[in-house]
Amino acid sequence: MKHSLTFLVVSAALMQSAAADKLRVAIVPGIAVNLDAARVDALSQELADALEAELDIEAFGGLEVRRQLPPDGIPPDCVATPTCVADVAQRVGAQQLLFVVMVDTGTGGAIQVDTTWMEPASGKSASRPAIDIATLSDARARFVASAPQLLPDAPVRPKPKLGGGPVGTMKPEVPRHFTTPARVTAVVSGVGFGLGIAMGLRARSKYNDCDASPNTCTESQRDSIRTTGLIADAGLAIGIGCAIATTVLFVTSGQEARMVVAPTTEGSGGTVTWLGRF
Asked: Contact at 8 Å (CB) between 98 and 117?
C-alpha cells in the first residue's frame, strides 16, 4: 500500500512538472464591435482549444480569463500600456498574451478577428494576420489553420505515428487446385463408381442366368442377386456423392488477390485490421 501511494505521489508530481514546463498563453478579450460578451467568450475559448490542439502549449480563454480581469474589462489602450499588459499577465498567470479584437462585419454573420501577441517578460509584441470567419461553424477550422501564425515560436504538438512496417500487404492470387481433401474424395469417388459398375454387371449376369433357367434358380441365388444389386446401388451413390464433393472443393480452392491492411498507432495500444478482396 505504501509503495502504491508513493507511486501515485511521484506520478502526480511528474505530471505537474510537465504541465509547468508548457508555455501558458491567455486569450484576452479586447474591443468587440456588434458582438456581446457571451459570443466573444465563446470564440475566445474556441481559439484557445484550437491552439492547444495544434501546439504543445497550455492555452485558456473565455470565461476563465474574463473572470480574472477587472470588472469593467481592460482599457482600450491596454496593448500600448506596458503596466496594463503586465497586470493582465499577472492576473491570468500567463507567459504570453493574445489580445483579440472581434468585429461583426454585418455581412451574413461574418466576423473578423485581429490579434496582437505580447510577451510581458521581454516586452516583445507583434500584430498577427487577421482571421476572417464567414460563419460560426467555420471558426474552429479557421483558428486551427491560423495557430502556427499566431504563435510561430510555439512547439507543434506531435501527431500520432503509424506503427512499424508497411500498412498493407497484397496477397497474391491463388489459382484453383486439387487440395488434399479433394484428392481423397476423388479417389473414393472412383472406387465407388468402380464398385457400382462391377457389382451391377455381376448382378446383371446372375439375373440373366436365372432368367434363362427359372426352374433351376434357387431362392438363395435370387437373394444373392438382390444383395449384389444393393451393393451396386450403394457404390454408385458413393461415387456420385464424392464426385460432387470433389467438384465443390476444386471450385472453392482458389482465392483472388486481396489487400491486408493492419495499421497500428504507437502509444495508444490500438490496432485496426482490415481484410478485403478485389
From this structure: yes
Tell which wins on pLDDT, 182 or 14: 182
Q: Which three cell numbers mark 11?
A: 506520478
Question: For the chain, what is the domain count?
Answer: 3
pLDDT in tens, 11-66: 444 444 444 578 999 999 999 999 999 999 999 999 999 999 999 999 999 999 99
Which neighbouring-strand residues pair with 124? 119
Specify if 275 maps to a domain. Answer: yes
Q: Is residue 10 part of a domain?
A: no
Cα of first residue to Cα of last residue in the chain, in angstroms, is 57
Both 213 and 101 in one domain: the answer is: no
What whole-number distance in Å separates Cα of residue 147 and Cα of residue 160?
19
> Which is it for the CA torsion 39, 45, 49, 51, positive or negative?
positive
The range of the structural domain enclosing residue 278 comes to 161-175+254-278
Residue from 172, 166, 174 nearest 261 by CA = 166
55 and 146 in a single domain? The answer is yes
